[in-house]
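TODO from last week: model RNA polymerase-associated protein CTR9.
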Amino acid sequence: MACVYIPVQNSEEEVRVALDQLPRDATDILDILKAEQAPLDLWLIIAREYFKQGKVDQFKQILEEGSSPEIDEYYADVRYERIAILNALGAYYSYLGKIETKYREKEDYFIQATKYYNKASRIDMHEPSTWIGKGQLLLAKGDGEQAFNAFKIVLDGDRDNVPALLGQACVHFNRGRYSEALELYKLDPDNVEALVALGISDLQTNEAFDIRHGMEKMQQAFEIYPYCAMSLNYLANHFFFTGQHFLVEQLTETALAVTMHGPTKAHSYYNLARSYHSKGDYEKAGMYYMASVKESNSAHDFVLPYYGLGQVQLKLGDLRSSLTNFEKVLEVLPENCDTLKALGHIYVQLEQPEKAQELYRKATKIDPRDPQAFLDLGDLLISTDANAALDTFKTARNLLKRGNEEVPLELLNNIGVLHFERGEFEVSTLFFDTPVRYTWAVMGITGIVRYPVDASSVIRQYKDLTLFQRLEEQGLSVELPWDKVSVLFNLARVLEQLHNTESASTFYRMIMYKYPEYTDAYLRLAAIAKARNSVQVSLELIGDALKVDEKCPDALLMLGDLELKNDDWVKAKETFRTAKDSTDAKDSYAAVCLGNWNYFAANRNEKRAPKLEATHYEKAKELYTKVLLLQSANLYAANGAGMVFAEKGQFDIAKDLFTQVQEAASGVFNVQMPDVWINVAHVHFAQGNFALAVKMYQNCLRKFFYNTDSQVLLYLARTHYEAEQWQECKKTLLRAIHMAPSNYTLRFDVGVTLQKFSTSTLQKTKRTVDEIRATVAELKNAVRVFSLLSAASNLHSHGFDEKKIETHVAYCKHLLEAANVHCELAEREEMQTMQRLEVMRQMELADESRRKAEEQRKVQLEKRKQEDEFKQVMQQEKHLQRIKGLLDTSNNEEGGQRRRKAAGLEDSDVDDEEHKSTKKGPDQTADMQMSDGEANTFNHEIFHANTSMINSGSPLVRPILLWGDDDDDEAHDDPKAASLIKLDSFNEAKELDRMTKQKSVISSTDEDGENYRYMSRIVCVISIEFMRTELAT
């Protein structure tokens, strides 16, 4: 036991102070040192011992008191001890500044260190230890050049000063000048500290050659001085990696015995703890990790024991302590992925997934090539974000493949499960099939699975294991490693979803054959048998599972459900209670099943007791509410609570609950809840919203049952029945009968529907013959349906009363007789109505014919009138052309006479010529000409004739050219045949006017006796002014 002795002043006595029993309060020891005026070297020894024990405050208190002005004045002649105290304080604050992370505090520490070193220099500016301390301070501040100069000042006075040489070697090492650092370390081949330093320098390169040489130097140092704690620690570290734990323990125990230096002891304890940790002795490992932590002042000094201690505490289940130690490691190494993953795992155990997820994501960002970080993150995301979890798992799988590492079965299984939950069954089979493909390929099980199976033996085949016995008898090895059982089970689940139940059942039976204690295989086969209405086989398989594990909650719950379906209420209740008790009342599904039992007990078909019914409802509500308090997102409990509210008539609350459950279930693929859709439809039905109820039932059928569920079809038919949509009700019931032909209740409902349809039709005040005929046909069908039900041998087993059936038959026959009478009357009325309609149709056709004939006659008259008008217009145009030609001829004759007079011809000669021309043949009469006197006479007569007609009120006409009857058309068409009619007197003009009036309009009568008027002749009327104009021209 180390002790120091303080001499008593003016006496030969000494005060003995045990260094391992120093007082907690340093004031006591200071009082002794001051009172006895103890040498300063004792002050320094006691302060250093306090520091070794981790009592830093006492260490500072003694040294600061030892460097106070009072002590300086009293010990003015003692130079070296005063400098040593000041340098110790300077070294302490240099160390604090080096490890401090905050800039302001770091600078404050460096200022304090500088102050103490400067004070020491004022005592003796040439003291080497002070310059070495300054060099260390400059190294801590990162000023390598000034530090090198400080060490050089010492070496200039003592070229073999080892601390200064080590300081310069450290500067070279920090600058990366390893060869120069090695030269400085090689000054003394037998210097243990130099050999250790050289060994450390070699080990830092992480090269195999240098590591081997570094360990040789450590061994050389150990041979020179076997009690060098540093070399012992490095040798122990080497033997730890070689697996020689005996040497590790022996070397570290020696190092602990020979050193009192805290950091060195921390390394020794750490090596010892690692050895026990690797051997699985967590108790001793934790004890030595804790000792190492105590020897180091903080995690910044030596962080590794904190990490090891956290690992051991995590293994021992001390999550809080482990969390604290890993957080300390993270303060020193904020980007250490192993620490981040460890903390994430702890937060998962503490049910703080948000913090865990944040840590895992940070780890993946720091090291995106770490597959384990992605695996941990994916495991955490499975319950919250399945899509993100799938992407994370795929990233981990790709990283493992890229690194040529084997992909774990667990990873493939998780990827397959996530694809399964997304409904991507074909994709999920690829991940489930890959791990088991080679196992099954050896024995040819794939071909066996695809063999055709006899439909009659499918049900009993669920328990048949002889197939695999025959395979082994044939020499085929049926091997199924335990680590692949879950993968094979999941593959069978996917095949179930793909409706390949034969292959799935083969895989389940294979698992049962190799591992009879695997209860999930029994339960899946029981579920398949139940889906095929083979209740007995399902019960047997569940019984087999219970033989393996009599408290299996899943098996008990399935058994209770089947008992409830078989109307075995007492057994079902006991089974549900057993399931609940087997899980210490922690299984929420068992509580929901008990709630369902109470609900169905309140709605049994037996005679209800209102008080008992209310009790069952309250118990069901209590159980559902209890589950929701523990698991607010439990959809089954919420659905059950909604059912209770609906039964109590609180439809709005029930509908709100059902709607929320429906929305929540729609967002999760692996949650199939058709019940909530049906319940929403039931609420609409109860509120009289038949259209919405029909729509909801139809959506449920299409979404969950592929329109094939007879029970939902029955609900739909009932809605149509209440809405008096008889034909839709009948069609829906016929669909249900097609799905369940042995269900006699559906047939009875069809008969009732036909009966109701017929009754409602016959009660109408106005009905058509077709409706009555349809009623007769439907009544005949109803009689036939009820008669078949009445003749059934197992009538009572279906819950029917024979007298009730006979009553329906008699009533339908009575309705049929009445319907026949109504049908005959309606047919006679229809015949009479048809005859009346035929007569009216004939009359309408006659009227229509007359109307069309009249319209046709009018059209013909209008057409003839238009044609006549067109002819008149054309004749007028032709007549105008002839008149114009006549006038042109007359003008030409007058011009010829003027020319002849100018030539000296006599009028007599002209008259002779004209006389001669008149004697020409009849073919030339068309070119007859008049003399000037005759022309004047012609104009004069026309003028008077027209004047007289004007005065007499006759129309202004110019009877120059008359069109005759159709016989004269040819003469008029030929210009040469046309002749002028000269009106020599007024009487002729008057006669022409009378003839024109007489022949202008002629009346006649058509075939039907109706009069119509038409123009037979058109006389071209030309006024005198027009004639004068033409003659003047």
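Done. Confidence is low (pLDDT under 50) at residues 446-456, 905-992, 995-1031.
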